[in-house]
């Protein structure tokens, strides 16, 4: 039996204040589940969007930030468009990402490794370049065993001719778009 005790994380007052703002924004959620049913990435989330809003209402900060749900959110706005209460759900997912990145523990921030590597890759190349995406992910994860985990998949992809040398044909094409989104996020 593992006797290791996990020390609970005590969030600082600023973190608690941000959570309170989210709680008041999401207080009108009636748990209808439309956001979850609409989410194209819901199948890959450990906590569904509907459950996430309930956790926010209950102030379950540690469980919220340890979830990978908001890192799986691709900001498609489908949930925001379809929520019958008109809640700003994509913005809330974005706020949780920023909160975890800025104020979470290292273990929590580690969950962002793939998201950050993916977004860096798309911003740089204008599309996903898988042969440079994975090294970026391994570096950001700081987990020396992670490449071994993906080795069989890499071999299968190579045999199937799915791995390509990075192309610079679309390089920088999306930089302005990324800059605009950053500007909008800072204003929100
Ligand atoms: S669609 Fe809106 S009201 Fe329904 S569960 Fe999601 S956030 Fe709540
Ligand atoms: S904005 Fe995020 S949470 Fe909402 S439907 Fe799109 S991927 Fe899902």
Task: Let me know the number of strands.
Answer: 0
Helix content: 55-70%
Low-confidence stretches: none
Q: Which band does the percent of strand residues land in?
A: under 5%
Oligomer: single chain
**Structure annotation, total helices:** 12
Bound molecules: iron/sulfur cluster
The radius of gyration is 18 Å
Distance between the termini: 47 Å
> What is the overall silhouette?
globular
- Biggest β-sheet description: none
Q: Strand pairing plus helix content: what structural class?
A: mainly alpha
Mean pLDDT: 88
Order of helices and strands: HHHHHHHHHHHH
Describe the model.
- With 188 residues, the protein is mainly alpha-helical.
- It has twelve helices and no strands.
- It is globular and about 50 Å long.
- The mean pLDDT is 88.
- Bound molecules: iron/sulfur cluster (2 copies).
- One iron/sulfur cluster binds at residues 38-39, 41, 49, 73-79, 89-90, 93.
Brief characterization of the structure:
With 188 residues, the chain is mainly α.
List keywords for this structure.
188 residues; globular; 61% helix; mainly alpha
Outline the fold blueprint.
Layout (H helix, E strand, L loop, with lengths): L12 H14 L7 H5 L10 H9 L3 H6 L2 H4 L5 H5 L6 H15 L2 H5 L2 H13 L4 H12 L4 H14 L15 H13 L1
Helix pairs in contact: 1-7, 9-10
The site of one iron/sulfur cluster has 14 residues, from α2 and α3.
């Amino acid at each position: 039996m593992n006797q290791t005790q996990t020390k609970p994380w005590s969030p600082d007052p600023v973190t608690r204040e941000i959570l309170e703002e989210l709680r008041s924004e999401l207080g009108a959620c009636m748990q209808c589940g439309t956001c979850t049913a609409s989410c194209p990435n819901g199948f890959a989330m450990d906590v569904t969007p509907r459950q996430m809003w309930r956790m926010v209402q209950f102030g379950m900060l540690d469980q919220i930030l340890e979830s990978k749900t908001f890192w799986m959110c691709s900001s498609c706005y489908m949930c925001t468009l379809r929520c019958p209460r008109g809640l700003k759900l994509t913005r809330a997912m974005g706020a949780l990402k920023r909160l975890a990145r800025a104020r979470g523990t290292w273990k929590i921030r580690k969950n962002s490794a793939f998201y950050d590597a993916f977004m860096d890759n798309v911003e740089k190349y204008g599309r996903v370049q898988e042969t440079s995406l994975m090294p970026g992910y391994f570096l950001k994860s700081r987990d020396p065993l992670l490449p071994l985990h993906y080795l069989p998949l890499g071999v299968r992809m190579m045999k199937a001719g799915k791995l390509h040398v990075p192309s610079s044909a679309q390089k920088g094409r999306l930089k302005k778009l990324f800059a605009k989104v950053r500007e909008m996020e800072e204003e929100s």
